[in-house]
Design goal:
Elements (H helix, E strand, L loop, with lengths): L1 H7 L3 H20 L9 H14 L2 H10 L15 H16 L1 H7 L3 H31 L18 H28 L4 H12 L1 H12 L8 H23 L1 E8 L1 E4 L2 E4 L2 E7 L6 H19 L3 H9 L5 H22 L2 H10 L2 E2 L7 H35 L4 H4 L4 H24 L16
Antiparallel strand pairs: 1-4, 1-5, 2-3
Helix pairs in contact: 2-8, 2-9, 3-4, 5-6, 5-7, 6-7, 7-8, 8-9, 9-18, 11-18, 12-13, 12-14, 14-16, 15-16
């Protein structure tokens, strides 16, 4: 593995891509630490910490994590790339239900370019709306957390709101351009790398919080607990890697065809169906939706609703039960909207492919749908277990949530997925030029 890292710098093109990616990441981190004008960053840090403790800590912490801490500082990149990710998800869902967008998608590269352009326009609209809500929240922080008595904005008003909206929207558009440049001229998916770097940026702070639990006057655990945590971290990470890479291989046989005087086609290949097809989307959807009932019940001054609000607090039994059920539901929902067995079966039939033992056409679609349903259940159950681990560690074992988030949940899933994808791209460059990859053994003679 170390020789593979050294070989990365021996290939001029790969070296340029890596350095370009590092430069773009540096710009992203710089913008995440430049505060917007007119906001008291010191008071804002205190306010965000209180909000995470008292009001929907996970959803606020998730938003701050996905922006790399920029939200907590009200930085220029306070919204991160999440508006673009949200717009892309909305367009994906609309493509599955709107025939006009479906036809546009089938036009090839031209159609996909138009859909991406629509996503960019939607991103700007989302930034304007979210930026205005952020500005209003900074002007009236007591609306989200009544216990806060500080002042976040010295000169509130329309001028501050317009300036904040313009600043945050411009920052998100710039960050979106940075991500696209990384995808085109760097290594890996630019948007995913920006999110991952923001998550990893919080790792030193998490390690510091964990260190104080074992060493110092406030220590609560001993060396045995440290060994158990280390073993658990390695085990969970290995399990996430295994499930992320796991797939069901459906054998596909292609019939030979006569084209002119040549016999083309034939041979056998396989169709990979990922076990965790939906990735982290079910966790994000479940966390976002569960935030609203608890907040709504807390506003109703009735004993029954107040009891329900406390039962829906993060880490409680009812919350974890609904959380797990919603992850299962959204796992199947995402597969139902993004996986089209009828289209796959028609494409196989059109190109002379078939699954051995299964008739082409609708029987193939039913077989694929049945297979995907079974493996999705395994992936959804695993996703549920990984998602609840941070809550159990945080609420039952008194581990800081920032530290517990690296033992599972969205942080670990995103980091592992992006790291594996980036490593595959780097390895493809190495193997193409006859160098050893990260997972290959033996010595090959490299050429530039």
């Amino acid at each position: 593995m170390f020789s593979a890292f050294l070989n990365c710098w021996k290939i001029p093109e790969l070296r340029r891509r890596i350095l370009f990616t590092l430069g773009m990441v540096a710009i992203a981190r710089l913008g995440a630490n430049i505060p917007c004008p007119g906001v008291n960053s010191t008071e804002l840090n205190v306010y965000m910490q209180d909000v995470q403790k008292q009001v929907g800590g996970s959803i606020v912490g998730l938003a701050d994590m996905l922006t790399g801490g920029a939200l907590q500082q009200c930085a220029v990149f306070a919204l991160g790339v999440m508006p673009y990710i949200s717009a892309s998800i909305i367009m994906m869902l609309l493509t599955a239900v709107m025939p006009s967008l479906e036809r546009l998608k089938q036009e090839g590269e031209t159609g996909r370019a138009k859909i991406i352009q629509y996503s960019r326009y939607m991103t700007v609209g989302l930034c304007i709306v979210q930026g205005w809500f952020l500005a209003r929240m900074f002007e009236h922080p007591e609306q989200l957390f009544s216990g806060f008595r500080g002042v976040l904005v010295a000169n509130p008003g329309m001028a501050f709101e317009i300036l904040t909206v313009i600043t945050i929207t411009s920052g998100t558009v710039l960050l979106m351009w940075v991500g696209e440049q990384i995808t085109e001229r760097g290594i890996g998916n630019g948007m995913s790398i920006i999110i991952t770097v923001g998550i990893v940026d919080r790792l030193p702070r998490a390690i510091g919080l964990t260190w104080r639990l074992f060493v110092g006057p406030q220590s609560q655990f001993n060396i045995l607990h440290a060994i158990l945590l280390l073993v658990m971290a390695v085990t969970v990470t290995a399990a996430v890697i295994a499930v992320t890479e796991s797939q069901r291989k459906i054998p596909v046989q292609y019939a030979k065809r006569m084209v002119g005087r040549k016999m083309l086609g034939g041979g056998q290949t396989f169709m990979p169906l990922k076990i965790n097809y939906s990735g982290v989307m079910p966790i994000i959807f479940a966390q976002a939706i569960l935030l609203f009932p608890a907040k709504l019940f807390s506003m109703l001054q009735m004993p029954t609703f107040q009891k329900l609000s406390r039962a829906l607090t993060e880490g409680e039994t009812l919350y974890l039960t609904l959380y797990g059920l919603m992850i299962l539901f959204f796992s199947y929902f995402w597969v139902a909207t993004q996986f089209n067995p009828l289209q796959i079966a028609d494409d196989l039939k059109r190109y002379g492919g078939y699954v051995p033992g299964i008739r082409p056409g609708r029987p193939t679609a039913e077989y694929l749908d049945h297979t995907m349903t079974r493996i999705t259940l395994a992936g959804a159950v695993f996703l549920t277990v990984i998602a609840v681990i941070p809550y159990i560690l945080s609420h039952n074992f008194r581990l800081p949530y920032l530290t517990a988030s690296f033992f599972g949940g969205t942080s670990l899933l995103i980091t592992v997925g992006v790291m594996l994808d980036t490593m595959r791209q780097v390895e493809s460059h190495l193997v193409m030029r006859h160098y050893d990859g990260f997972l290959r053994k033996g010595k090959l003679r490299g050429r530039r």
